[in-house]
Amino acid sequence: MTTALLETRHLSRHFGGVQAVRHVDFTLAEGELRCLIGPNGAGKSTFFKMLTGQLQPSEGQVLFRGHDVSRAQAHDIARLGIGIKTQVPNVFDGLTVRENIWLAATRLHPGKRANTIVDEMLVRIGLTGLAGRVVGQLAHGQRQWVELGVVLSTDPDLILLDEPAAGMTHEEVNRTAELIREINRTKALIVVEHDMQFIRMIAKRVTVFNQGRVLVEDDVENILRNPLVRDIYLGKLAAA
Amino acid sequence: MTARAWNIVGLVVVAVAGLGFLVLTPRLAELDTVLELTVYMVMAILALSLALVWGYGGILCFGQSAFFGLGAYTYAITMFNIGESTVPLLLAIALPAAFAALLGYFVFYGRISDVYLGVITLTVTLILFNSINSTAGPEFHIGSARLGGFNGIPGIPPLNIPGNRTAAIDLEGMFYLATGSLLAAYFGLRLLLVSRFGRIIVGIRENEQRAELLGYDSRAYKLTTFTIGGALAGFAGCLFANWGSFVSPTIFGLSQSAQIIIWVIVGGRGTLIGPIIGCVGIQWLSTVLGANQPSGAGSWANLLGNVPLVLGAVLIAFVLLVPKGLVPTLGDLGMKLLNARLPALPRNPAEPVKSERPESA
């Protein structure tokens, strides 16, 4: 068995009396790609925020490569190698596409090398033609790509993607799936998604969150057949 | 032309205008005008310090005058004790910088929110004002320098050529020093802002959370920016103490603190030249209004002589009508005119795509 890249033990977070995440034990192997699904309010975003140091756990631990990062600052966790693309594009809206990616690249490469990385990344995310544009003026889908480029440019070992395909056109969704598979050749990922088609395109294993707990964890095909999952999640979508 | 080319044109224009002003003013203007312009230049350095801290660092500091006043008082007190100006000048920069670093450490590492930062910095300034104000008695002295309380410290010895205490600076020399320092501060900050550090602090201003998630310790960057601003304000304070050979607690007062903010708002945040123009323009306006104060109490025209009232009206007008400030607004306008004359650029047809899928929590 491979060593765990990320592990949480009894991870919990409550807001006042509301228990957003309860005693989650979660393990991710080096190089794994895991999908996280669950209905609204299941605790997925809170879980991500605790992994990245944006929220402190009320209880429990987050271990990254065996180091306890439960109480670490967001920037320290980022430096250890966890990158996150949030649900709503979280970019430097007042700056250009090039400047956005440069700010990410220069963290690891303070010298001129950052410019080369920016050029390569612009090609990779297909935004070379928009490099000089201010990000706030771009379409939603394009800003998603900018954020992906920003996250990738810090070269993290684990990438968290919160609904990477939201707001994208069909063609963009296909490209995103392709990019995720490509990223997964070298890096581990956790992807939160609602789109089952999309999950089928990328995932092998899926973890289902419900009411702050891990409901079930299995291969994607079994998850899709699981009546419990259908009930709490897929059924709702089918009915909608 | 590209943005980069415009930047270079802007730099050249500022350099030529600045050098021309530096060389020609003492030859063309009367001495009292030169004296008046000197204090404008000193205050413009103070305006630059807030242009960096607020305009680029995104830190709304209401107490920039605290560092300005500390610089002035440090120079005055050490000058009376030492008599040679090299060390007092350096201390007038180092002490406010250290004070800014200490204050900034608690504020930024304590993750105190922006609104409270404004309140805290203003409070610190007013505490300094009240403390210094109540040191009138002869028992309040540091070495041979009496603090003087609300009377201030008069007769502060001027700067001299380093190492030669008899070669003191004269009024014209003071103009050259202030204007030269302003130009040096301007170009120094321009360099800082195109550096890696400068680009990162702008990134933190734009989206602090994103910067943190990329691995930047925003606290350290903000603290550094704040400290540089404190050092620059302290240096301006030292020049101010030299200019009038006098310093009093009003330097820490509420109106002084508010003025610096007004200069930056009027001139425009996110530019360096804007706050300089705002500072010089408003001081000139204050002087003109103050000088033309009509006699005869109770007349409507008297209102024009009420400088704070007019400045308040100017501020409100700017906040409501020109919220971005003078220089950014003129820049936008110029760009529009220019683009209208050039063939239209291809517009990006993409509009935000609405998500059909349910939003998650």
Radius of gyration of chain B: 22 Å
Helix content of chain A: 25-40%
Q: How far from one another are the termini of chain A?
A: 41 Å
Into which percentage range does the β-strand content of chain A fall? 25-35%
Order of helices and strands of chain A: EEEHEEHEHHHEHEHEEHH
CATH superfamily of the domain at 1-81 and 189-240 in chain A: P-loop containing nucleotide triphosphate hydrolases
CATH architecture of the domain at 1-81 and 189-240 in chain A: 3-Layer(aba) Sandwich
Shape of chain B: globular
Enumerate how many helices of chain A there are, as a single number. 9
**Spatial order of the strands forming the largest sheet of chain B:** 1-2
The CATH topology of the domain at 1-81 and 189-240 in chain A, please? Rossmann fold
- Beta-strand content estimate of chain B: under 5%
List the helices and strands and how they pair.
The complex is a heterodimer of chains A (240) and B (361).
Chain A: E1 4-15, E2 18-29, E3 33-37, H1 44-51, E4 59-64, E5 67-68, H2 74-80, E6 82-85, H3 97-108, H4 113-124, H5 140-153, E7 158-162, H6 170-183, E8 188-192, H7 196-202, E9 205-210, E10 213-219, H8 220-225, H9 227-239
Chain B: H1 3-28, H2 31-56, H3 64-82, H4 86-109, H5 114-133, E1 141-142, E2 145-146, E3 160-161, E4 164-168, H6 171-194, H7 196-206, H8 208-213, H9 218-244, H10 254-267, H11 273-291, H12 302-305, H13 307-321, H14 326-341
Antiparallel strand pairs in B: 1-2, 3-4
Helix pairs in contact in B: 1-6, 2-6, 2-9, 2-10, 2-11, 3-4, 3-9, 4-9, 6-7, 6-9, 7-9, 10-11, 10-13
